[in-house]
Design goal:
The complex is a heterodimer of chains A (334) and B (334). Chain A has 334 residues and is mostly helical. In chain A, 75% of the residues lie in helices and 0% in strands. Chain A is built from 13 helices and no strands. Chain A has helices at 2-29, 34-41, 49-62, 69-81, 95-130, 135-149, 152-163, 187-225, 228-235, 240-258, 260-277, 283-293, 296-324. The termini of chain A are close together. In chain A, 37% of the residues are buried. Chain B is mainly alpha-helical and 334 residues long. Helix content of chain B is 63%, strand content 3%. Chain B contains 14 helices and three strands. Chain B has a three-stranded antiparallel beta sheet with strand order 2-1-3, with no helix packed on it. The two termini of chain B are 31 Å apart. Classes of the chains: A mainly alpha (334), B mainly alpha (334). The A-B interface holds A 14-15, 18-19, 22-23, 26-27, 30-32, 145-146, 148-151, 153-154, 157-158, 160-161, 165-167, 219, 265, 268-270, 272-273, 276-277, 287-288, 291-292, 299, 302-303, 306-307, 310-311, 314 and B 169, 172-173, 176-182, 184-186, 188-191, 261, 265, 268-269, 272-273, 288, 291-292, 295-297, 299, 302-303, 306, 309-310, 313-314, 317-318, 332-333.
């Protein structure tokens, strides 16, 4: 087990290297360096071409942008090896600090979403499979199919329009993580306020996953129900409830658990849009704002940490495999 | 060339099975209808007449740029026409870029069926023209990644060994990429253009196709007819493209159809975030993104383009399911 874990963690390194290298090359090769952007923003261009050029060169030097590409990447790597992601161009705070502030927010969103996805999907899928072919199965399949095709940014807009104080109801806040007065709330009131604020964004991040996992759960369940041991269980006179929940469902969960690995990057990716729409200060919005501002160190830091969290999520999903299926043990695998 | 598809009985069989799925068949029809709308957008939504008789001569201003009418406002002109002169306008007599500052943010009414946006442009006209963006991005982007995926997958599956190990690692790295973040980064750093969007989606989406093709090649390369081709002295390229690939393509069609739906979603998400086609080109995501500023009342700006995206994605997904069931029901896991 420990050997397996070590091997998996080591395998993460080339993946992370690949991701950071590609991101680095894209943002560095693209036109419009932050130095130029900064100069234009401060409107010193009025002072004449020569002066502007000088300032751009100086700023480039200051940020280390005057060196060739591969040297810059190596310098960046060397820094990252000590968990130093540099300073944000915007407010000169250490990137790692900014990201550490944002991680809990994004994790709240994604973990809540994944929890809710499984909470709803497993029973829905099992129900659908047990009632295969019935009217309720077909209706559920149709609803899930529709949910699967709904673009989440549109759903977000519609929720804001209808439930967030558009023309219709004003049931939910559509901005931020807490009410303004939240700092003075007691624990329970704070929690309730937070949940109230998270309701719409979490709903947007969750429904697609529910649609996806329920369909898979239904398919997995149908697969298991056909097995001989289910017939045996029925033949020996076990009550249907026991057959469904103890013999069939447990086994159908095995492929479903690993799907969390696919869900995690999707939810992290989706949060870029959802966090921006609902102004939630998470990793997604951080990355998005940094891209707009050409804040290289923040973009790189955000991409690296997001990728790392994604890989970690995939690893955790693989490890839970051993929990649900004792036949699988990674330690013994060669 | 035509001998390559001698095994057309397979495709006949697939088509016969596909035809039985009435819903999928209807959706395929709708896709053709959408292409029709996109192709004939100039005749459907335009402020120039389709057919006009002016001073005894017949003109087709919507199709041909007549030089003498370069600065003509046809609507004013049409009001002054006396029989037998006439002007036949398209069903939506507005161009997608036609400003009308007297009719800003009008809700749907008799003259603007789906309302107007913040510059008084007709939403329906913009949606008809926006179909061009969505459909072409969907097709070209998927075309690019099918090409990449087929080539890399074929190389990995056919040659095996070190090539396979290398390409499989590459695929693994790509799968862990936070794809959407990467696409936003690419798009944000390149000049805004529809081609960059196609390329960005194309270069990040090929892993699914590559994995599938690799698997098919691994299976097929051991068949007798491949061995026979080899014994007859056929070169690698000939074996790959003439003997194996045609037999490996069917499942790719399924992935590609689902892929078009995904690409349309990504394009509209990018436009929604402001990274889409440059203005004043209309796209569905772009109209939806305008609605963000007027979400308090402008329900028509948010509802209609979102519904267009959703319905397009849904019909592509339904056609994809139809293909999948017709080609090979065992592909359910894609």
């Amino acid at each position: 087990m420990r050997g397996y874990l070590l091997r998996r963690l080591l395998l993460m390194l080339p993946t992370l290297l690949g991701i950071t290298l590609v991101t680095f090359i894209i943002i560095q090769l693209a036109p419009g360096s932050p130095a130029e952007l900064k100069i234009r923003a401060s409107q010193q261009a009025a002072l004449g071409e020569q002066y502007t050029k000088e300032v751009i060169e100086q700023t480039k030097k200051l940020y280390g942008l005057d060196k060739p590409l591969h040297i810059r990447y190596l310098i960046w790597l060397k820094q990252v090896a000590t968990l130093n992601f540099g300073e944000s161009y915007k407010d000169h705070r250490p990137v790692i600090k900014i990201i550490l502030e944002r991680i809990p927010v994004s994790l709240q969103l994604s973990i809540t979403s994944i929890f809710l996805v499984y909470l709803f999907s497993v029973p829905l899928g099992v129900f659908s499979a047990v009632k295969q072919g019935s009217a309720s199965d077909r209706l559920l399949t149709l609803i899930l199919f529709i949910l699967y095709s709904l673009p989440n940014f549109w759903v977000a807009m519609m929720l804001i329009l209808f439930l967030g104080g558009g023309q219709f109801f004003h049931w939910f806040p559509v901005y931020g993580l807490n009410s303004e007065a939240a700092a003075g709330f007691g624990f329970w009131k704070f929690l309730a306020d937070r949940l109230w604020h998270l309701a719409l964004p979490v709903a947007c991040l969750t429904y697609g996953g529910i649609a996806f996992i329920s369909r898979q759960q239904r398919a997995a369940m149908l697969e298991v129900i056909r097995q001989d041991y289910i017939r045996t269980a029925r033949a020996k006179g076990l009550p249907e409830k026991m057959v469904v929940f103890k013999h069939a469902m447990r086994n159908s969960l095995i492929p479903i658990v690993t799907l969390a690995a696919a869900l995690f990057p999707a939810i992290l990716g989706g949060s870029v849009i959802i966090e921006s729409i609902f102004s939630i200060p998470g990793m997604g919005k951080l990355g998005f704002d940094a891209i707009l501002a050409r804040d290289y160190p923040v973009i790189m830091g955000d991409a690296t940490i997001s990728a790392f969290l994604t890989l970690l999520g995939i690893l955790v999903a693989d490890l839970t495999y051993t929990l649900v299926d004792p036949r699988i043990s990674f330690g013994a695998r060669k | 060339m035509s001998s390559r598809f001698k095994s057309s009985s397979f495709w006949n069989m697939v088509w016969a099975r596909f035809k039985k799925d009435r819903l999928a068949l209807a959706c395929l029809g709708l896709i053709f209808a959408l292409f029709f709308i996109a192709l004939f957008a100039p005749l459907l939504a335009n402020n120039k007449p389709i057919l006009m008789r002016y001073q005894g001569k017949i003109y087709l201003p919507a199709l041909i740029n007549h030089r003498q009418f370069a600065t003509t406002d046809f609507k004013t002109m049409a009001r002054g026409l006396k029989p037998p002169d006439f002007a036949l306008f398209p069903p939506i007599p507005y161009s997608p870029t036609e400003y009308d500052l007297m009719a800003v943010l009008n809700p749907p009414d008799a003259s603007h069926w789906l309302g107007t946006d913040d510059r008084g442009r007709d939403v329906l006209a913009r949606m008809v023209w926006g179909a061009r963006v969505s459909l072409s991005v969907g097709f070209v982007a998927v075309g690019i990644y099918v090409l990449i995926g087929v080539i890399l997958g074929a190389l990995a599956g056919f040659y095996g060994g070190a090539v396979d190990v290398l390409l499989s690692r590459l695929i693994e790295v790509m799968i862990c990429f936070p794809t959407f973040f990467l696409i936003i980064t690419i798009i944000a750093f390149l000049p805004p253009s529809i081609y960059n969007i196609m390329i960005a989606i194309g270069f990040t989406g090929w892993t699914g196709v590559a994995r599938l093709i690799r698997g098919e090649f691994l299976k097929i390369r051991q068949r007798e007819y491949v061995e026979a081709a080899k014994a007859l002295g056929a070169g690698d390229l000939k074996i790959i493209f003439r003997h194996i690939l045609p037999n490996a393509l069917a499942p790719t069609l399924v992935i590609a159809t689902f892929g078009v739906a995904d690409a349309i979603l990504i394009e509209s998400a990018l436009s929604f975030l402001g990274f889409g086609v440059p203005p004043p080109t209309a796209s569905w995501g772009d109209i939806l993104s305008q609605s963000r500023s007027y979400i308090n009342f402008a329900w028509w700006l948010a509802s209609f383009p979102g519904a267009a995206i959703f319905l397009t994605v849904t019909i592509y997904n339904l056609v994809g399911e139809g293909f999948r069931d017709a080609i090979d029901p065992r592909l359910k896991s894609i």
